[in-house]
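ERR on first pass: missing label on line 2. Operator R.T. fixed the label and resubmitted. Corrected input:
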Amino acid sequence: MFQDILVSGLINSGVYALLAIGFSLIFGVARIVNIAHTAFYMLASYALYGMLVIGGVPLVLAIPLAVVAVVALSLVCYKLVIEPVRQHESAVLIATIALALIFQESLLVSFGGHFLGIPNAVEGVTSIIGVRVSYQRLIILVVVAVTLVATWYLLNRTRLGLAIRASANDQEIANLMGMNVNRVAMYTVGISVGLAAIAGVVVAPVFVVDPLMWLSPLVTMLAIVVLGGLGSLKGSLIGAFIIGYVEAITVFSVPSGSYLKGAVALSIMVLVLLIRPEGLFGVVFEEER
Amino acid sequence: MSRKLLLTAVAALGMAFNSGAWSQNIKIAILGPMAFVQGENHWAGAEMARDEINKAGGISVGGSKRQIEILKFDTNELQSVPDATNAIERAITRDKADFLIGGFRSEAVIAMQEVAMDAKKLFLGAGAADAKLGENVVKDYERYKYWFRVSPTKSPDLGRTLFAVLGAVGAQIRTELKKEIPKVAILSEKAAWTESIVKAVQANLPKMNMEVVGTWQPSPIATDVTAELSAIKRSGADIVFTLISGPMGIVMGRQMGELQLPAIAFGINVEAQKDGFWQATAGKGNYVATLDTYAEVEMTPKMIPFVKAFKERYKKAPTYNAATYDAIFILKAAIEQTGTIDANKLVPVIEKMEHVGAGSTASWDKNHDLIWAVGKTAGIGVQWQDGQKVAFWPPQIKGMKPFKMPKQ
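pass 2 clean. output:
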């Protein structure tokens, strides 16, 4: 059982990490609570399905095209819908909820409510410490690891990353230092949605694709970023692993209670918040920000 | 003045004609989640019945022929019960439907039933299994007598069918795998409709000489069950007994295939009833078995022609919600027998009817639920074999093929 928990938890945590870090990035830098974040993840899955299964586009082309298409759409949505109301957080919240619902209903009309499947990139299974794991899931792990390293590199070793971190730290000063904070926010939106889109294309073959698939990961993702600390990338990563492993432990320890895995994970979040309201690695934001 | 009066009268007449108040057609509201496969099948079954009846001249009502008009109402019941009650309310008050057929999600149909009974409209169910719908008829007959369930059988009777098929599968495992006591893992979504069946299975399997090695209950909307399947694999289960109505049915089938689990998945798996199951599992859902209603087998003399005609017209096989076809023919038989569309006169006729339909040979008990009988209303067992959905139970029906075991 221990090996099952170890492997199962690792894979789930990786997917959650991709989603949570993207969300945390956009909130930390641009102060945008993007409820449509997992809706973009859903769009990427559908884009992959459309290109691969309906369009017959080869996988090596379909994946990057799906990611690029969704990122481009997110930038358009940002310019038209979010940027005009960016100063009003509640308006942004409502606008992103509306966006998510528009995506959901559009997909419902286009594809129907059917659950769709996408073929694996690589077929077959292998055994890791006695646990059977499909190659597709190993690909998820590899892609997650590479993406996280690339994100770290971007944020810590590039000028854009410096600008992003500076804006996250203090937007006003960053602006005074000559950084175009609006453009930085836009780049951050693109990177954040890119992470969600990558999660969508690698995970889609493992799960099912349907117009409501954005709802369940939204709740888990919000729990993770709150647990880890809003705006903290390190917190989101560690939060993802905590939640991923709590869910795996719940399923293996209490089989007839596996439906409770979500509730248990959220309870852990509540417990942490009672002790530390800003989350594990969050900062208490000052009003001037 | 008289000119104004004339114009007003003409306008009023025009509005009356437009509203359909004077229509001679018999209006039947088809209610279902039209964006989903269940509603699609509700509508498709109704279309086939309408076209067949109207082509033959319509329904004879007291000596004069009247055509059928079917009206589509999207209940959106998978997402919202209020949307469902709004839909049935519109059907009754705005569109003046004479009869109501359909429904899928039990929680929504229970609410819709109240609206229909308030209006004393005949409401024939074609999707919801909750026993409460029939219990209401006995509780307050005068109010609820207008409800009849055409499909499926009520939940407890679904359980009876499951046990009947499980016994047959268990016997095959004993013969082929030489295992005296097959091991069964229960994989059931945590939902109202599964609770009584899970308890019944846990209690009865030992009496059937089978061992329950564990019960796993993920959320109905779970889309990843690898953790559960890993645990099930370790338990050494020969049968994975499923009670699944949601997407988990696809994921389970696919992941069992990917992980090469040697166990058979059998039970209720609504997604596995659909033609799209094979594609959705990327071709890995082999050996997944489920209860179903329609196949090209001679369950009734009408089933094979109906299924073939359905497939030709809609390019896919029907799900159990296509029982709207039988529902409309039941209404036709009752109307032609009584010579009226008055619901109060039709109810006692339907109560005594035995209707040989495309999906079942239906007759009703005092709950206005289908009387359960193997070969008549109990349904069929189907299994996915190499991309084809093959019917295997009850074995005595013409057209059934053998059940297959995965490689051990």
